[in-house]
Design brief:
Blueprint lengths: L8 E2 L4 H7 L12 H5 L1 H14 L3 E3 L7 H4 L3 H18 L8 E6 L2 H5 L13 H17 L4 E7 L2 H11 L6 E5 L1 E2 L2 E2 L5 H6 L7 E7 L3 H15 L3 E4 L5 E3 L4 E3 L11 H8 L2 E4 L7 H10 L2
Parallel strand pairs: 1-12, 2-3, 3-4, 4-5, 5-8, 8-9, 9-12
Antiparallel strand pairs: 6-7, 10-11
Helix pairs in contact: 3-5, 3-12, 5-7, 7-8
């Protein structure tokens, strides 16, 4: 069965926080992708926790995986990320729900591990970004995920590169931007960002992730109106990451278990893929699933 959005689907939450909660050290530059090689069973367990919490879609641990980071192992480990998520979907103790696998394609800046994924403007051309992303996408697609997740994309150049690669392939994908206020992290108007996918049938949904939940709420109706497509939305908890202290601080402003109003608002404004990113746990995903029809 092909991946489709004829009804709302629940995405998973933060894979990294689930792995960290299980005691795994993610301080390496490869972040959670390191465990694809070093502890694949831990990756399966994290995926399974989200599926059993109510997620319909599990997102692979390939966000920060690259040929630059893994060298000759890259193709194998990228495909392995899909296999592990699929294995978790088979093992998950759920009712008769169809479970899907989304292959994560993170931004170029994630590979640098210096925070530039939240700034964009890497100094690379669109063609150079195409050359970076194409082998990753080809490796992931060869493992037959249900959909590709182009996620946490900070600027229009990188989005254009991804659209260039996927257009005409027939491979389904979603594209979600990292944002601040009403702009991409690189400062471009969101309306321009969402308009990029309007005439690309391979992009099934467009929206935002890894952002402030209040910004996400404003972005959802804009994404629906500009693109004419279903919207994907999975923000962070609202807490902020302190790169110096390497810790989260601030107030949690997205807590579905106690306040479902953002979820119901996103749904009514056109969202069809709803979940969470950093600091969103299986408990939160259970609450989101409860509020979706």
């Amino acid at each position: 069965m092909a991946f489709q959005l004829d009804m709302p689907l629940v995405l998973d939450g933060g894979l990294s926080n689930q792995l960290a909660a299980a005691g795994h050290d993610l301080s390496d530059r490869l972040w959670s992708a390191r465990l694809l090689r070093d502890d694949p069973a831990a990756v399966v367990a994290a995926h399974r926790a989200y599926y059993e919490a109510g997620a319909d879609v599990g997102t692979t641990a390939s966000y920060q995986a690259s040929f630059e980071g893994f060298g000759s192992e890259a193709s194998t480990l990228l495909r392995e990320s899909v296999r592990l998520a699929r294995q978790a979907s088979f093992q998950a103790d759920v009712d008769d729900r169809r479970l899907w696998v989304a292959a994560s394609v993170g931004p170029y800046g994630a590979v640098l591990a210096d925070g530039s994924e939240y700034r964009g403007r890497y100094g690379l051309t669109v063609r150079e970004l195409v050359d970076f992303h194409r082998p990753r996408i080809e490796a992931l697609a060869s493992a037959s995920p249900d959909v590709l997740a182009f996620e946490t994309i900070p600027d229009l150049d990188e989005a254009e590169a991804l659209v260039t690669i996927i257009a005409g392939t027939g491979i389904p994908a979603w594209l979600s931007f990292s944002i601040r206020g009403s702009s991409t992290c690189a400062g471009q108007p969101l309306a321009e960002a969402f308009a990029l996918v309007r005439d690309v049938p391979e992009i099934l949904a467009v929206g935002v992730n890894c952002c402030d939940p209040f910004d996400a709420t404003a972005a959802v109706p804009l994404a629906a109106a500009v693109s004419g497509k279903p919207v994907v939305v999975y923000p962070n908890s609202g807490e902020a990451w302190d790169p110096v202290a390497r810790a989260w601080d601030g107030r949690r402003t997205f807590a579905p278990a106690t306040d479902p109003s953002p979820v119901t608002t996103w749904l009514s404004d056109g969202a069809r893929l709803i979940g969470g990113c950093c600091r969103i746990t299986p408990t939160d995903i259970t609450a989101i699933a409860t509020h979706l029809p």
